[in-house]
Write a structure and sequence with these properties.
Oligomer: heterotrimer
Distance between the termini of chain A: 46 Å
Helix content of chain B: over 70%
Radius of gyration of chain A: 19 Å
Shape of chain A: globular
Chains: A mainly alpha, B mainly alpha, C alpha/beta
Strand order of the largest sheet of chain A: 1-2
Strand content of chain A: under 5%
Largest sheet of chain A: 2 strands, antiparallel
Number of helices of chain A: 11
Number of strands of chain B: 0
Order of helices and strands of chain B: HHHHHHHHHHHHH
Largest sheet of chain B: none
Number of strands of chain A: 2
Radius of gyration of chain B: 20 Å
Order of helices and strands of chain A: HHHHEEHHHHHHH
Strand content of chain B: under 5%
Shape of chain B: globular
Helix content of chain A: over 70%
Largest interface: A-B, 48 and 46 residues
Chain lengths: ~290, ~325, ~230
């Protein structure tokens, strides 16, 4: 196996972990609230900026920056609950109106960031500098390792929260059968708020981690959001397990396509692949048993 | 939100407006105003076509601007590289947009709303990125195509050329709006609206969702591609900035603000936001924030858009006139 | 314990329940019989809050349930074991049971309660790490009952436990319900066919057309021929 292929696979796995973080939040929101949160990318972007600010202005290590980003953006996401979710809850065209509302919010967020931080790209310093070479020319930076560890650790913690804690289980329950969740005494309303907060925090984590790889700008959230959305469809909207698998597959695919064909073909390739998947399996890899077709 | 009330688009106000628009270039020399109105014609066509798909038929497509761009690029390239006259190439551009709509629509329109959003969004984004990173020179890459051939009206002089473009776009706009109006309120249109409001009900009544959706999508693509071609030949250039995501959101804000699902809503919204854009030009960055906020809040507070206020006002006016 | 007065409700514009009055005491097993579509499920869903009542009053241990949301009603101590089970399909049997103990008081005692439930339903113990959607009809019913028990409620609303099950399974489900009866729990049971339910009941209501047309004890009803043919299939 050539060195560049191994390199590519490693990048793919890394990308996959970050996509998983991004997509997990989206799938949780869709599962529990049946809402497509198109302001997710903006939250991702805010996460990046908060982490950057903490490291730059407070001089704290980036891990602290990530934690702060998680908390701050969770709160921002939570604010959507009374502003947007609550009023729209009774609306018959819920799916459509929340899409428009979250699109509007994303415009507001992006332009607020533009005003505050300016359009110029910012670079976030890596967590650790230096790299190591493993077997025959494959270079892995320490930064990549740390990012991978943080991403995977976050995913594992999230998974444990969802499946083992009382409230985490309630989140899954609400997504699977809302009425039954009510009958267990779950305050669905509060779970909505919890899901919003947690998924925003996850987006922030993803944003912070990704920012240290590429750069930071007000519009940096757009493409990752799109990819995360495609990941959730592929994995099955609402399915946590499916999303994680799909994220890694997509990450690997992107890395391999970049290697063999070229970076800009990654998204079109993904798109075509997605369409094929949807034709064969409309509800995605592990989609929740729900009507997807008309 | 079926707009059975044709009253909100009642006879007299629209006729007066039409007359004003027709007479405008004759009474004024102000190219700024004329150019603004032409831009309004263009966006009104795009928005009304988009509304036909989204608001009336309930297909949440974000591909509209991509189709606009396809119409523009194809027409521009045919004229530029093959010397085809714009009068003809614009129709080829429109048909190419229709073809694209079929390609996108076939897999996408069978699926539920959420999936349509994502896949059309992906389509838009991919097209934009592919064109913007195109180094081959074919599409002009990030800078776009320059020196796109015009309709050949330079011999009329500056003012004459302006008037030509004004009346041509006006004609296109009126014709297309007329077609959209007829479709919206025809049996087919009402079938579309029933689709939008309850897909299951429509299916149970024997209305085949997919074929109707495809049809609407194609018709809308034709109109949009056509005006996209006009755009290219009028501005003599077309570039990826013609279909940026920001612009897409701008247009959506116009539809949402005006009132989606209605005929007059998008028209109203387009005019209002264009005027607002011009007025707020000095505080450019805030403009977008305001638009975003408006979009989010209108959808929450006044889902029917501003046109519902107009409708209420017209009704009250009519009542008042009846009493007097 | 449960007192319903002048209850009216329905779906959309269609009324389903008309001016119902109902009383139930602690420790009682009350059976509500009725043909399908006459309001039995609606009654239970209104009590548990999944449906908003239009007018009337529902008092549970003195507390009016009318303004409460479903989760708040469950908090008061009512468990609704719904028609169709409404299990969480992508959670395991164990996780479904745990969800039953979601509320704080139930959560604290969940391990002890779990042992009791598993003793009552050993089959659930065998299947504990299986996904709920892989269970068979009878097993699902059992899980729904077990999950309901985990709430440690005071009143159990059980909606048509025999629905969709083969006769052999119905018998076994009712054997399970009998275990609950033996524990002295208060149960409001709703059914279309009375054969298995009647022997368990202390009192019976007949719900037809959204009205309670009759109320009595099983012994009185058994001898009534009209009742026999309608509800016992005789």
């Amino acid at each position: 196996m050539s060195a560049s292929l191994v390199q590519s696979i490693i990048s793919g796995l890394l990308l996959g972990s970050i996509y998983a973080l991004m997509a997990l939040g989206l799938t949780l929101i869709y599962g529990a609230l049946r809402m497509l949160n198109l302001s997710h990318g903006a939250l991702f972007m805010f996460g990046g900026y908060v982490a950057w600010m903490v490291t730059l202005y407070l001089g704290l290590p980036i891990l602290i920056g990530l934690m702060v980003a998680f908390i701050v953006v969770s709160v921002i996401g939570l604010s959507l609950h009374p502003l947007i979710i609550k009023p729209l809850l009774r609306s018959p065209a819920w799916e459509m109106t929340t899409i428009i509302a979250t699109l509007g919010i994303s415009i507001v967020f992006e332009n607020l960031a533009l005003l505050t931080f300016g359009p110029r790209r910012k670079t976030v310093p890596p967590i650790l500098s230096g790299q190591m070479t493993i077997y025959g020319g494959v270079v892995v930076t320490y930064h990549e390792i740390v990012v991978a560890v943080v991403a995977v650790a976050s995913l594992v913690i999230m998974g444990a929260f969802l499946r083992r804690s009382r409230h985490g289980l309630a989140v899954l329950a609400v997504a699977q059968n809302q009425d039954a969740a009510y009958l267990m005494g779950v305050s669905v309303y509060r779970i909505f708020a919890l899901v919003l907060a947690v998924s925003s925090g996850l987006a922030a984590l993803g944003g912070g981690l990704l920012a240290s790889f590429y750069f930071l700008s007000p519009t940096v959230g757009g493409t990752p959001q799109l990819k995360a959305l495609l990941v959730t469809i592929f994995g099955g909207l609402g399915s946590v397990k499916g999303t994680v698998y799909a994220a890694y597959i997509v990450g690997l695919m992107e890395a391999l396509v970049s290697l063999y064909v070229g970076g800009k073909w990654a998204l079109p390739f993904l798109f075509v692949f997605m369409i094929l998947v949807l034709i064969v399996r409309p509800s995605g890899l592990f989609g929740l048993s729900e009507e997807v077709r008309l | 939100m079926i707009s059975h009330q044709r009253n909100s688009f009642s006879f007299w106000p629209s006729t007066i407006m039409m007359l004003v628009l027709i007479g405008l270039p004759l009474v004024t020399d102000n190219t700024y105003i004329l150019r603004l109105v032409i831009l309004a014609f263009i966006w009104i066509v795009v928005n009304s076509s988009w509304n036909l798909v989204m608001g009336v038929s309930g297909i949440f497509s974000l591909a509209q601007l991509a189709l606009f761009a396809i119409g523009g690029y194809v027409s521009a390239m045919l004229a530029l590289y093959l010397g085809v006259t714009p009068w003809f190439s614009m129709f080829i551009g429109a048909l190419t947009a229709v073809l694209a709509s079929v390609v996108v629509g076939l897999p996408t329109l069978r699926l539920r709303g959420v999936y349509v959003v994502l896949l059309t969004l992906a389509f838009h984004e991919i097209l934009r990125v592919l064109i913007a990173t195109d180094d081959s020179g074919l599409t002009g890459g990030a800078f776009g195509l320059l020196n796109v051939p015009t309709y050949g009206m330079e011999s009329l002089g500056l003012r004459g050329s302006m008037m030509f473009h004004y009346y041509f776009s006006m004609l296109l706009c009126f014709l297309i709006l007329f077609a959209i109006y007829r479709i919206t309120y025809s049996p087919i249109g009402l079938a579309f609206q029933s689709l939008r409001d309850s897909e299951r009900y429509a299916t149970s009544r024997g209305v085949s969702p997919f074929r109707y959706k495809m049809l609407v999508f194609m018709v809308s693509a034709f109109f949009t591609g056509l005006i996209g071609a006009f755009y290219a030949h009028y501005y003599k250039t077309i570039s990826p900035s013609a279909f940026s995501f920001g612009l897409l959101m701008n247009l959506m804000a116009m539809i949402v603000l005006g009132g989606w699902g209605t005929f007059a809503g998008p028209i109203l919204g387009t005019i209002l936001l264009l005027l607002l854009s011009e007025g707020l030009h000095s505080i450019e960055q805030f403009r977008l924030i305001i638009f975003g906020l408006m979009m989010a809040f209108i959808v929450v507070l006044l889902p029917g858009g501003l046109i519902t206020l107009v409708g209420q006002a017209t009704r009250r006016l009519n009542m008042w006139l009846d009493e007097g | 314990m449960l007192e319903i007065t002048h209850l009216n409700t329905g779906y959309g514009d269609t009324p389903v329940l008309h001016n119902l009055d109902f009383v139930m005491n602690r420790g009682e097993i009350v059976l509500v019989l009725g043909p399908n579509g006459h309001g039995k499920t609606t009654l239970l869903r209104t009590i548990s809050g999944l449906i908003r009542a239009w007018s009337g009053q529902i008092l549970f241990r003195g507390r009016n349930l009318m303004e409460l949301s479903p989760d708040q009603i469950v908090q008061q101590g009512i468990a609704h074991i719904p028609q169709g089970d409404l299990l969480f399909p992508d959670l395991t049997v164990m996780e479904n049971l745990m969800m039953g103990a979601y509320l704080p008081e139930a959560w604290q005692g969940r391990h002890a309660r779990l042992q009791e439930v598993l003793k009552m339903f050993p089959l659930l113990k065998e299947r504990s790490s299986q996904m709920a959607r892989t269970l068979s009809g009878g097993e699902r019913r059992m899980l729904a009952l077990g999950r309901g028990l985990m709430t440690q409620a005071s009143l159990y609303l059980i909606d048509e436990p025999s629905l969709g099950l083969a006769p052999m399974l119905v018998k076994s489900v009712y054997e399970d319900i009998q275990k609950l009866v033996k524990q002295g729990l208060s149960i409001l049971l709703v059914e279309e066919n009375a054969t298995h339910a009647l022997p368990l009941a202390d009192r019976v209501y007949l719900l037809e057309g959204g009205h309670f047309v009759r109320e009595g004890v099983p012994n009185d009803l058994i001898d009534d021929e009209a009742f026999q043919s309608a509800y016992l299939g005789i």
